[in-house]
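Structure ticket #2291
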Amino acid sequence: MNRILHLALLVPLLCTVAPAAPRLFYSKYFKGSVPEFTAITVERSGQATYQEAKDDDNPIHVQMTDAETQELFDLAEKLERFQHPIESGLKVANMGTKTFRFEDGTEKHEVQFNYSTDTVAQALLERFECIAETEQDFIALDRAVHYDKLGVNDALLALDISMEHKRAVAAQQFLPLLDRIVKNESFLHIARERAAAIAEAIRKPAPAQEKVQP
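Resolution: structure written out below.
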């Protein structure tokens, strides 16, 4: 009985001291832009959360691919987990206040900047912006599917352009919406054709080309 009691007490303790997984956080505040605020959290597992307000009660949750996730964390490592300033200090226009943060248990490092000349910081900013653009495309398509059938083709065109420019992230998230459009004859024929083509590209992507890391 003593051994059983000991194990029962030990299990919660082990759960308590289990190491936290690393996570990356990005936010941008640019007054007057639409949206003015965006925030993205990416867990090491690839689970990502997108918000358009600090108190967003309906954030979007997506699963990024291993390659997409690895790229973000590799760039963060090259920036030494944000332990050093990356602001250029140059007199440039206000481009919004951006924040990079790395968290891993008790370890936490954060930098804020308006503009950076560091090519690695620029690359990481670009990847986070791609995530934000993708989720904005998702919101637009989801809204059109439910409330504006005539606007579905325009929303699909925006997604198509993102796909062509390799800016779509976690593209699998679009498949339920795309399949719904393809199967529903109440949508315009051109929209259904475009949805089918995009879904096919997501399910059978072209072989990835090697790219040079900054």
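Closing remark: Residues 19-203 form one domain.
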